[in-house]
Fold:
Amino acid sequence: CVLRIGAYTSILRNWLPKIIKEFKVTHPDIELVIYDGDATEICQWIANETIDIGILGAPIPSDMEFIPLIHDCFYAVLPPTSSAGEVMDVHSFEDTVFLIPSFGTDVHVLQLLEDNHVNPQFLSIKTEDTALVKMVAQGLGSTILAELVLTGCTDNVNLVPIDPPAYREIGIGLKSYKKAPHAVKDFISCMEKHAS
Structure:
C-alpha cells in the first residue's frame, strides 16, 4: 500500500518528520511518497489524485474536504537593527520595503495587509522562506511569516507578534474522508493527535 502526501516545505521540515516516524512504527508496510508544493499545486494534486492528502492552509476548493489541525501564528520578521517593541502594529508596514513570502503563505499575508488597508513597498522575491529570512537579516526589508516557516531559521532577525494577531489555519485537504482508505484515515488520526 502507498500513501501519497503533499505539504508545504515548512510542514515537511518542521512538523511532518515526527508524525511520519510515529506512523511508520504502527504501519511499517505502508510506503510513503512525499510531495513538496505550494497551496495551488497541492490542491491540483488532490484534484487529479496525484496525492491522497494534502497538508496546507485553508481555504481550499469547495469540492474538497478540509480537516483543520492547527492555527499557525504570523510574526513580523524584522532586521536585527530594527527597534521593535513587544508587538508590531501591522500598519507599521505602510510604505516600508516588504519582502513577499514564498508561495503558500503569500496569499494569507497579502490578505492580512489588504484587510488592514496597509500598502507597503513590495519587493517580490519568490524564494524559499529561509532565504527570505536571510534577506531580512541583511536589512533588505521586512516581512510577515508563519511560525512553522520560522522554526529553526531565525538567527539575526527580530521576531515580533503582529497586531491585530493573525494566523493561517493548517489542516488536511482530501477528496473524501468517507471514501478514503484505512491508511489515509490512520495517518489523519496520527496528525490530529500531534495537533492537539
About this structure: The beta strands are 2-7, 31-36, 53-57, 65-78, 88-89, 97-99, 121-123, 143-146, 158-163, 167-174.
